[in-house]
Structures are given as C-alpha cells and as structure tokens.
Amino acid sequence: MTFREFQERFSTEAACREYLFSERFPEGFVCPKCGHREYYCIQTRHTYQCKRCCRQTSVTAGTVMHRTHLPLTVWFWAMYLCATDKRRVSALGLARHLELSYESAWYLLVRIRSAMRDRNQHYLLDGIIEMDEAYLGASKHVKKRGRGTDRQKIAVMVLKDNSGLLKFVHLQNIPDIKTATLQNVVNCHVVPGTTLECDGYKSYKGLKNVHVNPSKYTTGDLKWAHVAIGNFKAFLLGTYHGSCGNIQPYLDEFCFRFNRRFQPTQLFSRLSRAVATSCALLS
Ligand SMILES: [Zn+2]
C-alpha cells in the first residue's frame, strides 16, 4: 500500500473501525460470548450488541487495543510506520512522527510488538531445523564467557527449505540452556518428529520428540542459525546493552519482519491483521 493509498483509506475513525471489523470478523459478526451471528449496531458507543445474549463488544475489545484512549487513526499510522520503515521504529521516532508523548509512543510499540508475538506463535516449525543458542549484552563478570556467562541467552531456531536455504526463524529469550528449558522451546514451536541439527552440547542430547541429525551433531556447522542471530544484532544496531530490560519484544519484532522479508509490500496488511486479531495485554 502506497503512502497516498494509506492516507485515503484510513483517514477517519469510521474507516479504521470498518477495516478492523472485517479483519476480526471475516465471515461476519460472531458474538464472543455465545457465538450468535445477529447483532445491533450501537452507533453512539461504536459497539455491537448480540441479539441473543445482549453482550456488547467492540472491534478493539479483547485485543492489544483494549480500552485504548488513542484514536484508531493514530494506531493505524503507528502500524503503517512500523511496517514501512525498513529499520526498527523507535518510540522516540514514533513520538516525533505522530506528535505524541514518548509514553504514548511507547504504549503503542509495546502493544504492536505483542501482536507480532501473538502472530509468531501461530506457526510451528516443521522440516529441518538448525538450533543453537546466542548471547547478548554486557556481562557483569568479564572472565566468564560462552555457556557459563550471565549475558542474555537466546534460543535460536531456523527452519530450512528443501534447498537448504533459510526459510523461517524463531528467536526466544531463555533463562538458561538446560535441557528442560530447551525442551520447552521445542515443545511449543516445533512439530514432533522434526529433525534438529545442533552442536554437541550436552543439553541438546537429552531433547525428546525430535531427531537429532548425527552428521551436524559432530561438525557443529550451524551456518543459518549464525546468520539469523547476526541479522538480529544488526537489527538492534547496538542500541541494546543488556541492562535495559526485556529483550523478547525486540526478538518478536525481528522474527515477524524477517519471516515476511519476501513480501515487504504486504507487511502493513499482515501487521494490521495481527493487531486486529491479537490478545489483550495482561498488564
Ligand atoms: Zn451473544
């Protein structure tokens, strides 16, 4: 979608609401409480009331936009900027472009990244996967390196296509690299029975429900896993130093963008769909 097309299509609250409605209820309205399909429109409150159980709902209820005080046009501008900026959009940049306070821009970014995370969770990796771990940020102990470090630990999984090229990435912040932790990552994101290529580290040996590739097991050639984490570090551009909190939202945004890198023109529609169908943030 070009800048002009975006501007024309999403210039009013009503237009944004209509778009969210079509993304949220692609087959027509469905009551979130009882599943009934007939409803009344309550124009003054921009809500839809179920004809059977009288439950009122809106296009933002239960999503990351739940109870937002920001206009929908601002949400759409934020999504558009996130989708069209090839680099990472910062809260400061968003605040400047949209003439918002830093807090409002941060509020938007946290929720947009959460929607990206929700969408990333939809996919299970199925095929041949390279798995490795990576470290990020500064260590408190200069001498401790490698697997004993206290730096941020990231589980790296990359799915390869039939030609052995990088297809899909999953990056996840993990507290440690014990077998139980890695098993949890595998259980949540990999189809059982998948082939996993990893190095000879002991934590990988105990993994269940996956086949560990013996040739890679000894050589430790995890080229695409290294490429993925290299790309993530470039994406951060040195702005993250390990002491400023949660790295996972940055990983979520990177994976969402990277896995759609061959469809850059569709990124806005993918992102607005992700936001429209997301789950509300708990806190
Ligand atoms: Zn109902």
Describe this structure in words.
The protein folds into two domains: 133 residues, no CATH class; 131 residues, Nucleotidyltransferase, domain 5. It starts with a helix and ends in a 7-residue tail after the last helix. The protein is of the alpha/beta class and 283 residues long. The model has no long low-confidence stretch (mean pLDDT 89). Helix content is 41%, strand content 15%. Helix 3 crosses helix 11, helix 4 packs across helix 5 and helix 5 packs across helix 10. The strands form two sheets. The chain has a five-stranded mixed sheet with strand order 6-5-4-7-8, with helices on both faces. A three-stranded antiparallel sheet has the order 1-2-3, with no helix packed on it. The chain contains eleven helices and eight strands. Bound molecules: zinc ion. Zinc ion (ZN) binds next to loops.
